[in-house]
Structure formats: C-alpha cells, structure tokens
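Worked problem 6 (solution included).
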Amino acid sequence: VQVRQARPVEPREPVDFEKELRRQMEFYFSRENLKVDEYLSKHAVLPDGGESAMEAAEGSDDLRTVEVDPGVLKDGTRWPLEKICTFPRVARLCSDERIVGISNVVEATVKVLAGSELLETKLVAAEGKDTAETVYVLRKRDYTSDEITMTAQRTRESRILDDGHAAPCKYHVAGYCDRGSKCPSSHDAAYALAVESQWMDPEDDELTKKLHLICESLSLPKILPAKKVFFDSTDGAPEASDFDYLAVLDLEGRDEIIEFPVIILNGKTFNEEARFHEWVRPVELFNGRKLNPESTAITFDKVLNNFHEFLTAEGFLSGKIAFVTCGNWDLKSQVPKQCKICQIDTPAYMRSFINLKDIFNEHFFSRNRVTGMKGMMKRLSMLNNDGTIEGCHHLGMHDAENIARVLLRTVKAGGKLRYTYVPKDL
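Solution. The predicted structure is:
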C-alpha cells in the first residue's frame, strides 16, 4: 500500500459551545420534542413535583418564545436552559460522567464538554444557587474550579479515546461526513495519514514520533500507537491451527463499507506477517454530496483488486487462508452486499470465515455470552485501568489489531480455531 501525501487543510471555525449547548438542551425540552419524546416526557419531572414535563409543555405559561431556525420547531417555544437545569430528575438522565454545576451551568458544561461531542444523553443539571466561588460536582464529589478543569480533561480524554473521537473521521477520509464541523472526530488530512502510516508500519519509531507531534499540534490526546502482533511464547509454543494463514478483518461503515483493514497472522506460530489497509469510497452513499478533495479512498472493487494482488504477491494464497472476524456481519452480510452494489463476485476465499466471538464463547463456556470485541477484552482483563481499549474504538485499523490480540489470547488458553460459517453451496 502506497503512503499518500496529504494536502494542507483549511482551518475550520471553532464551535460555539455555549450556543450549541443552549440550542440542544432547549430543543430537547421544547413542546414539539416532548410531544414525541416519551422518555423525556416521562422522566423529566418539574421542580413543583408531580407534573411531567410533557404536561407542563402543553399548558404552562412559563415557556418563552425564541427565534429558531426554520423547520426546527413549528411553534417556536422552548424552556429556557436555566429553567431546565432546575428539573430534579435531569441529573438522573445523565451518564456516569454527569456533572452538576453550581452557578453558571453553561460555563461548567463548556469546561467539561469543550472539544467533545454534545450527546443527547449528556444532560447537565445545576443546584440553582450562586456561590462566591464556583464549585462543581463530579460523581457526587466536590471540586474547586481548578480541580474540575483537570478532572474533566482526564475524563474527556478517556471518553474521546474509547468512543473513537480522537480518531480521524472515517467518513470524511472516505469522502464525505454529514456532521461537518460538529463531527467530534478529526477532519485533518495529515492526522489521518499519520495514523494510517504508523499502523501500517508500527515498528518505525519515526512514524510514531510524527503521529505524536501531529496530536500535539492539533491539541488531541496522544493515542497509544499501533503495535506489531506476536504470540507470547513464555509458557511454550502454541498448538498450530489447521490454517496456514489467518486474515483478521474488521470492516467499518453503515450502509456501505468505508474502511478495509486486515492483519495477516501465521496460522502455525500466530505471529504477524503483514498488514493491508484501504479507505473505501462508497458507490451510492455519497451521491449528490460535495466530496472531500483530499480523500484517498477508492471504490470497493478496486480495494478487492489491490487486496488480491497483495495476497498473491506475499504468497498468502499459496496456502490455506482463513478470515477471522468479530461477528458475522463483515463477511456474511456486508461484503456480499457491497459486491452486489459494485456488480462483482465475492472472492471465494472470503465466503467462509471464523467468527471469533463464537470460538471465544465456546471455549470459555461463558454463562453470559460476550457480544463484542470489548466484552472479550474485558473478560480477558485486556482493558486499560479506566476501562478503555488501546487505540481508537471503532477505527477499523485499531479494532483489527485488538481482535488479533484477543485471538492470540484465546489460542493460548487452548481455544480451537475452525470455520464457524461455511456457505451451503461450498
């Protein structure tokens, strides 16, 4: 895979977080939204008790009329943010990282959410009284304003890494992101190139240094760099599988595939042999959209052609190769669907595969079956102390690497690899 040079990126205007916060919160508790949002209307009880937010939205004179974007609200009425922050149950709708601000709720929220996504479930509540010194509460503990800034930074970085918000935006790199400036992931082309280059050659220290320098220049938390995958033979060599090579694959994309990363492992030693990665340009998904001119993505038929040439040149097709996925979606559903869109046949060697989740659940006799990569990593005590994974979750490159590590740990524990899905016509 050739490393492509990125063009300079035009600077983007900063997000007005106060404006965005007010718009989001006031919309959630607007008459129009409460008429259809059963969850909020049921749980958001007002300060005077008993009356639901829905009932209040139907008849209260305490609503104010504000100017709104055309089409957002038909009646243009919203609760003011200061009123929303006094609802007793608002705090209960927050996530574990909920913040209760005393004094200026907008100031408190901006301190914590600056640079991260304003999620619908991340509601903010306030005590409703002013103090001489602004005090914040995080997980029911009191902090001064200086302490909350440091704590919020650590919380935000942890959440950014785990949710993939420090990752390059997959859709932007593939050609188009419908979130635009509101996207929590990076749209910087140089950063996307640095992440891909370092992943392709994880043993190159210079690429790792370059990635960290770009993170600093963009004020992004330093992500843990990709690492080569190898079997820990401290307790002896592994039992060879029935396959010569294992291709660990983790596709990304909703309606169409946008990322295609693969790590090739030796089926006998379980050490890494090679890596392949391409960004994929959807055929139909971006129709009518103004595409990112810096995108290096290519259509899926060209990706498969490049991948076949890669497998042939490296000699991986000369032996028995099996694809390994975390679930059935990648190869049972999405690849055939994408091939149909591109009017090409699914490669024969990609029609059967090993679903690692099935192998994992069978071997460890799990009473509660794991349903994803992170669940397997948690069961194997592979998560960081704060519960996050190494790298960016839902970035295909990093997920493929973590799936490969879970595979090695499963094999080391005695798990037996076999095809979990074979088409009936094979």
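Discussion: The chain has a mean pLDDT of 74.
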